[in-house]
Amino acid sequence: MEFEHIFDDLEITTDPFAVCELRGACDLGLGRDASATLHYILAGEGEIRLRSQAPLKVSRGTLVLIPALQSHALHSFGVSGDPVPDCKPAAINLARLMATAECGDKGQLIALCAHVDVGLRGVADIIDLIREPLVENVSSPSSMRSALQALLYEISNPGLGSRAMIRALLTQCMIEMLRRRLAVADNALHWMAALADQTVWSALRTMLDKPGDRHTVESLADSVSMSRAAFAKRFADAYGSGPMELLRDLRMRRAGALLRDTDLPVKRIAEMVGFTSRSAFSRTFEAKTGQPPRAFRMSLQEN
């Protein structure tokens, strides 16, 4: 399938927010974020632990994209690796998140963390179509390996324009990750096939633009002039799941962003994402994130 025109239309932005440093064999909980989160491992070995999923092994040069609302933690194996220069995140307005094992800092894992947004043809938040983590490892000379060296330099020798350079390098790595994962038909990118189908894209755009509307399979099928059965099959073939399953996920991710970015009451947020019952919304949100809405908002305020 040809994806070149899709890449031409993608609008990818990255916002680096922290450098995470784990000294010794230890964990650093990162909780849930209302945005998709990108982790680039600058040094060390370890894994990213996710709720209800197998851990993802990471090492120097690993790039991992975690979908929104997925609770996760960084774990360092505490093994010694290639020495890296001292990071100076404060000089580029990045938080410094630390974890240290009681036994000391035998070895360390360092990760650059960023929020990611992806838009397409005027529609924001298509990053929310990603349902599984994406993982790419740099094991041979490549543009990503060159970017890793450049990132290390900017973080350890910050100067004029360093933050902008870090954003540009991370965006480059994000594009490289997408095309590499597409080249090996990664199931986590099944959704990009839906972008190439104009009929399915029209329905996706409707849900992305207005997740709080009272969509049904019938109404979405009508919007693209198809029968319910034909639309449901075409959508599932292109996207990998039914439209209502996707709509539920989009609503929860939009709710997470509203809980993070506003002080609106939970009841109002429930209405804005298509729920007539606050209790039904809270049950669905907790099933998705492991936390009720109020606890989720409080955890974001504590970070």
From TrEMBL:
Q: GO molecular function: any one?
A: DNA-binding transcription factor activity
Q: Which domain of life is it from?
A: Bacteria
Q: Check the record and name the SUPFAM superfamilies matching this protein.
A: Homeodomain-like
Domain HTH araC/xylS-type residues, every copy: 198-299
* Phosphoprotein recorded as keyword: no
Keywords (A to Z) from UniProt = DNA-binding, Transcription, Transcription regulation
Q: Which PROSITE patterns match?
A: HTH_ARAC_FAMILY_2
> Does Metal-binding count among this protein's keywords?
no
What is this protein identified as?
Answer: AraC family transcriptional regulator
Q: Which organism is it from?
A: Parasedimentitalea marina
